[in-house]
Specification:
With 212 residues, the protein is α/β, with parallel strands linked by helices. A 7-stranded mixed sheet has the order 5-4-3-6-7-9-8. It is globular, with a radius of gyration of 16 Å. It has one domain: Vaccinia Virus protein VP39 (Rossmann fold, 3-Layer(aba) Sandwich).
Length: 212
Amino acid sequence: MHVRTREYEFPLPARTVRLLVVSNTEELITDPEDEEAVPCWAELWPAARGLAGYIWEHLTFAGDTVLELGCGLGLPGVVCGLKGARVTFSDCRAEALALALENARRNGVRAGALLADWRAFRVDGQFDWIVGSDICYDPKLNRHLREIFRCHLKPRGRLLLAQPERPAARALLEELPAAGFETVRRVTVPVFTEGELLPYHEIHVDELLRRS
């Protein structure tokens, strides 16, 4: 699939992240009735912006391995790389991975890529961090995410999730303590997006530790 793109600059304190973003996501819609055909990966969502800002201001990775689930355009993963992480982008769409890798390259970040569906997730090894922005939106998929967290995050590893207030996300977060996770920090990040009817968003960022 040919994807038309344009350049976009995402500002951070003392840094600008240069991205290729999709010019017109509506051009990618082939069947509006098919949920799996909707190109959610092609939007730069408020949660990705909020998570990127949180990572930039609060975290340093010093060589830690980071898996970004549902990476889309790759903004949070790129910022993880800028803060010293060894990043692997993951998505079920090859177009997303191609753009995420290009965005990493444009910002001097070396990254790997994993084409994988959460319902049949296959990857060797475990990661120091798993990060995701607005990925916990569907109860049917959240059980698969919980299994990915359990299988692919190292003991004492960190899970970092960002989303607007969603019942499905809140339900998953409430289940995680029973699966061996504890909340280290929860903050609300204000996000302003240009050109929208409702430009203000409150993004909740949860940082959790896997106890064992």
